[in-house]
Amino acid sequence: MDTVTQTTQPSFCPTRRAVLAALPGIAILPVAVACGTTSNTGDTSSGSPSTNGTSAGGAAAGGGARIPVAQVPVGNAVVIAGAKPYVVAQPTDGTFVAFDAACTHQGTVVGAQDGLTLQCPAHGSRFNGGTGAVEQGPATAPLAPAPVRRDGEELVVG
């Protein structure tokens, strides 16, 4: 009497059904991470001039933020990092404006692009850094204005 024994090896290769079932979770992971994380190192100083796409500035007395005037060139916007991030811009020589840096779509901090363009890294909304107006959705509301004043060679925002 011959008996046939079949041995199977465990398979670590997922089935097509398992891969397809996992795709929605894998696709949403970068968005969830971008929308749900913030970096708060506590370092609000800046020793070098800000470049487009970076944050600069520091905390001011009274809960606002400070940034040297020289770090906000004419025709550019800069994001000031901190517990309450702001955008400050100089649309025309000597005229400074500021806005809350939270995208009005879902609250992600916008980034400064070329010139006065601000863009949300989460969903691509674009704003005008000189006016706060929406230039491209999904955001539909403009950025909230923030007070800004000049104090010598620094701007105080918030």
Automatic annotation (TrEMBL):
Residue ranges, compositional bias (Low complexity): 39-54
Keyword entries, A-Z: 2Fe-2S, Disulfide bond, Iron, Iron-sulfur, Metal-binding, Signal
All copies of domain Rieske, residue ranges: 64-157
Single GO term (MF): oxidoreductase activity, acting on paired donors, with incorporation or reduction of molecular oxygen
Pfam family, one: Rieske
One of the record's GO cellular component terms: membrane
Signal sequence, start to end: 1-34
Region annotation (Disordered) ranges: 39-62
Domain of life: Bacteria
InterPro entries membership: Rieske_2Fe-2S (IPR017941), Rieske_2Fe-2S_sf (IPR036922), Rieske_Fe-S_prot_C (IPR005805)
Listed name of the protein: Rieske (2Fe-2S) protein
Organism: Tsukamurella asaccharolytica
